[in-house]
Amino acid sequence: MLIASALLLFYNYDFILGAFPVYLAERGGSSSEIGLLMGAFSGASFLARPLLAHLANRRGLGLIVRLAAVGGIVGPLAYLVTTSTGWLALLRVVHALMPAGFIMAIPLMLVDRCSPSERGRTIGLHGAATSSSLLVAPSIGITLLHIGGMRLVVAGAILAALGALFLLRSVRDLPEDRLPIGSDDRTARSLMREGTASEASGAADAEGRTASPWRDRDVLVILLVNLTVTLNFGMIFTFAAVHGTTLGVANPGLFFSAFALGSMSLRLLSGQAIDRFGARLVGAPGFLLLLAGLLTLATGTTPLTFFGGALLMGVGHGTCQTLLWTQLVERATQSRAMAAAGMTNAFDIGIILGSTVGGFIAEAFGFTWMYAAGALVLFVSSAVWLSTAHRGKADAGTTQASA
Question: Where is pLDDT greater, at 135 or 303?
């Protein structure tokens, strides 16, 4: 039920994601304006997420996910109030509270409900399920926009959020959902299972494990790499539909479907491979596929290269996201909620940079140089990741870790 709820919340998000840039372009918005409005959404999520992480530590992750579902109903309704660019930017900020919560909380809730040897598989399954939203939702969103305008897009998004809210009624909260420490703190975790939350917090404090996770260099490397991966994600998802239109693609929304098909295809297998063989053997091909996709988009001039680049980037992005989340769960031995907030904030910073800076590059030099700049940044960060990928249980593989 938890994965199904996440799927519907991503449908809510992806309906708007695909349609909104096209809606702005049809109203005469420039590339820089589109980038700024998309960046405002991620910027608000970034600011809200640390507060939501503190709330999760006190009240539980389940509350955060339910609040996200409510935000998925109220937020889209606001888009029907105005067509002013300034007001739309403000409304995007308010709507941003929705993904700020559930993208952070659901992976942690899933990890608490599986064994350590199945973390990669579980995160991969979650990623495959939610990536399937990208297979159809953005394209449907754009189609609904052309049929009935933004009102029809909003109606579809609200129905998805209502379905998620209904399914969340059957998800049982666990004591671990309030645990503000790393997954290896067995004493405090046992106390939480027995219902003695105050004693658990005391045990965590005694071990010094409620300190900030930002002092951990391994965690910081993961966040940095995630930022560069999602910088390119932000660029392509903000400008793919616009770029496809310039290439003469009849339905550029199918770019998202090709990306999602690639992302979904190997997530489960890559998660199982991480559990068994370790991160390095899985991560290197993932980064190479991302780079190949960016270079294909940069040099291609036909619909075939447009969709081929989307497929390559999808496979690479899905593999890298499964890899980075599995590593984060393994390495974040202090505040899990805050580390997860940092992970998703790195995602948002990447989207902000990709949509805003990418918009200015595209406007000044064209889409080719925008993709080339993203590839250069990704190449540098992947080299940094490879230099640190030999540490940690997830990096060595489950079999080696248990040996």
Answer: 303
